[in-house]
Design a protein that fits this description.
With 163 residues, this protein is mainly alpha-helical. The protein has one domain: Ferritin, core subunit, four-helix bundle (Ferritin). Helix 1 packs antiparallel against helix 2, helix 1 packs antiparallel against helix 3 and helix 3 runs antiparallel to helix 4. It is elongated, with a radius of gyration of 17 Å. The mean pLDDT is 97. It binds hydroxy diiron-OXO moiety. Hydroxy diiron-OXO moiety (OFO) binds next to helix 1, helix 2, helix 3 and helix 4. Hydroxy diiron-OXO moiety binds next to helix 1, helix 2, helix 3 and helix 4.
């Protein structure tokens, strides 16, 4: 059985994951308007993943005999400055999510809740992957350029994301 404190923290994380999806959907609206269909596709795969992360936590709370409480999801920003700005903002967001996951893990350790610790290992690995992928995209954009043919090339590459 989950403690009330851990249950509340997991509920907050469900909300944070759904906000991630909401943020990325908002970024898609900007990317589509800029005709960056590859970037938009990449972000759409990401938004779906975020819903999956929320559901993973949702199911876990139930498996542990807890109660999920869904709270309103904060509205995301709707204006973005540039494609590179979008990816940088996504990385900054993921760094904040990583901090949240680590705090959750520390709470699970302090409460000696081993099943939650094991479940969170997956999220800890996932955050490493998410940050690295975004850093790679930023690195390529900084190296190749963020306009004209370079941007078209990166857009094409991002459009190939399958999962
Ligand atoms: Fe759920 O990993 Fe991104 O936010």
């Amino acid at each position: 059985m989950l403690s009330k404190k851990l249950q509340d923290a997991l509920n907050e994380q469900i909300n944070a994951e759904l906000y991630s999806a909401y943020l990325y959907l908002s970024m898609i609206t900007y990317l589509v308007a800029e005709n960056l269909v590859g970037f938009a596709h990449w972000m759409q795969v990401q938004a779906r993943e975020e819903v999956g992360h929320g559901l993973k936590l949702f199911d876990f709370v139930h498996e542990r005999g807890g109660r999920v409480t869904l709270r309103p999801v904060q509205g995301p920003p709707s204006a973005f400055e540039s494609p590179l700005g979008v990816i940088r903002q996504a990385l900054e967001h993921e760094r904040q999510i990583t901090k949240r996951i680590h705090k959750l893990y520390e709470l699970a350790v302090s409460q000696k809740d081993y099943p939650t610790q094991v479940m969170l290992h997956w999220f800890i690995d996932e955050q490493v992957e998410e940050e690295r992928t975004l850093e790679e995209i930023i690195g390529r954009m900084e190296m190749a350029g963020t306009q004209g043919p370079a941007l078209v090339m990166i857009d094409r590459m991002l459009g190939e994301r399958s999962e």
